Amino acid sequence: MVKVKLKDVTKYFGKDRGVENINLSIDDGEYLAVLGVTGAGKTTTLYLIAGLLSPSNGCILFDDKDVTKLPAEDRNVGFVFEEYNLFPRMNVESNVLFGPIVKALDLTDSRQIAREMFSLLNIVGKEQNFPDEISGGQKQRVALARAIVSNANLLVMDDPLRALDAKIREILQVELRKLVKDLGLTCIHATHDTHEAMRVADRIAVFKDGEIVQIGTPEEVYNHPISLYVANFLGESSQIEGEIVIENNESFLKNSSGLRLKIDTNLKTGTKAIALVPAELVNVFDISEKDKINYDNVIDAQIISSKCIGEFYEIDIKMHDLTIKSKELIGRKIPLKERSKIVCGIDKDDFRIFPIEEEESNDQEKTTKI
Amino acid sequence: MSEIHFQHVTKIFGRKVEAVKDLSFIIEDGEYISLIGPSGCGKTTTLRLLAGTILPTRGRIFFDNTAMENISIQDRNIGFVFQHFAIFPHMSIWENVAYGPSVRGKSKKDIEHLVEKALKSLQLSDKAELYPISLSAPDWQKTALARVLASESRILLLDEPLGALDQKIREEFQVFLRNLVKKERLTAIHVTHDQAEALTISDRVVVMNKGQLVQIGAPTDLIFTPSNIFTSFFVGESDFLVGVVVDDREKYSEVKVGNNIIKVSNMGIERGKRVVVAIRREFFQIEKVSVEDKTRQDSKHNSLPGVVIQEQFLGLLKRIKIKLENQQIIEAKIHAKNPIHFKEHDNVRVIIDPDSARSFSYPKEGIVSALEM
Ligand SMILES: Nc1ncnc2c1ncn2[C@@H]1O[C@H](COP(=O)(O)OP(=O)(O)OP(=O)(O)O)[C@@H](O)[C@H]1O
Ligand SMILES: [Mg+2]
Fold this sequence. Notes:
- The complex is a heterodimer.
- Chain A is an alpha+beta fold.
- Chain A has helices spanning 42-50, 92-96, 98-102, 107-120, 136-149, 166-183, 194-200, 218-223, 228-233, and strands spanning 4-13, 16-26, 31-35, 57-62, 65-66, 77-80, 154-158, 186-191, 203-208, 211-216, 237-247, 250-254, 260-263, 272-278, 283-286, 297-308, 312-319, 322-329, 341-346, 352-355.
- Chain B has a 6-stranded mixed sheet, with helices on both faces. Chain B has a 5-stranded antiparallel sheet with strand order 13-12-11-14-20.
- Chain B is built from 10 helices and 20 strands.
């Protein structure tokens, strides 16, 4: 158990910025997820905390003690990093018991924990195998076991479940959180996957270009993304550009094609704004249900295309001159054929509203074209 | 032409690890196949058997009608792309792509032609002189693909090729990859952990478990018409009801679950036999009922009575845990925006859509063992 604090931490690699001015406090026993695209600074931050890199500026405190200059082996951090592979010449068991052996701990306890980890992680029977004799996902689970068995009180993990299939990943997300809480560890878990972050963490820190752009509980981040960038990053969504109009104390967003959406905002009449709506909050109904449904906005629309991706249909919808994305659970009976006439129901508080002026134009998410 | 035929292929490592067990299937020429299954189920081993880096302990692999056991890796005409790019950092993109044809002793003119064509196909022409270090992750994967094309391989093996990419880029790359494979008329076998990726990218999907083939079928078949308990469990989420077939009509069978009878898809299981009914959690429809209704036999709906234990929010979904009369606990996934709130102790009816309720023979080894990964 340990409290972690980063104060104005900056790291440059030559001229390249790793992270800049990171200020972050992680509570005793807190589970923090770190979310961001490749190159956003997640791994750098985790390396700095683990002591595998030292900052160009700023300091790192564990329980108010400055550890900035402390080498990694004296920080008592268990870590999972892609680059810190298993030791190829040691079998799985020796890999997992490496920490306790180096620290000259009594191995009786560690062996017991190791056995529990093997069974929890479903790698029983692989103890005597060498790393090149197990599968990719098994390697990752051994690395995870090694970090937990290391007897550390802080766990730093860079995408520890990445190489696993969805089924095992979902099970382990739940188990990992439970384990961290049961053992009273403080935990920092970097991931690309929004759902994973929401499922495991007490709080989520969203990174962009070497900085933390938002930090909060999963609900706060999901329901109140601070910028268009964060909102877009969290999942599939659609954007509607328009102008705020207030009538009878109610706010609307009007766009050039005559679409008029009831929204929730403090922005003044005349402000140009973008309304962003996550695909899963756009509800599709057969046109015949138009009078029966109860949403703040009920809008006529047409199906452009739909595709089944597992538990959801991904649906593209034509609404006035816009293309809007929807995600619907496959159990619902809804029209899916091209050009079917439908109605969309969207509640006003499901739009995330961002004024256009304040938004840097380059903030509009750079997508790498393929 | 490159039809691939696995005939009872088994691979045993050491003395007892059966990484692949009696695998038989045919991949047609030009098909895009995905391999999914729990970690450690034998996906990578299957690819290695195809590539020839390991040989089957038993069984045979044919490309068209040629048996592969005596054909070397080089002569199998296979290209690979893995998550950890096997491209040479000290060579330019051009040199990386030219490596295959040069090793094969092609003439300078042929090499140039092949490399340029491959680079063009991958939209890398303007990056030919760059070195891998100055490229992004998607471009590394494209370089690896260009190398496969320049080597004139007909079969493309991909092991988690998009694993290092961010979600949005990954989704764009899926479309790109499928189009490339179709345009170049390659046969592709693609291992992925991402089920949505498998469903999006492939013509057919192979589900494996514990070294065995569990089901092979079109993406939507796996979701809507799984042919066994494991697929229902692994692809998405399902609950399993145990019952006995009491009647079978043309399209539907009637199954007695506890004291209730429900209609399910007739999958050819005889009357009197024990069955497992698998239902995806999105397909349960939940309705509240009054206390009076609760005791009345519900003839209007195809449903089971139950009591709510918990309603839980999970991002995009609400999950309702329900205890059925036989004490079994099931879980329904409903839309997060569903306006009805369910409270603990609420009496509900769990409505079952007979078309999406699949019935399978009760496994001899029990349900838990059948679902072991
Ligand atoms: N060289 C080897 N010696 C012993 N066992 C091995 C060897 N290679 C693989 N195995 C075992 O064979 C089984 C199948 O491994 P394989 O690598 O094919 O799995 P996979 O489906 O690719 O898994 P993942 O999704 O984790 O990559 C595993 O139980 C693994 O531990
Ligand atoms: Mg593998």
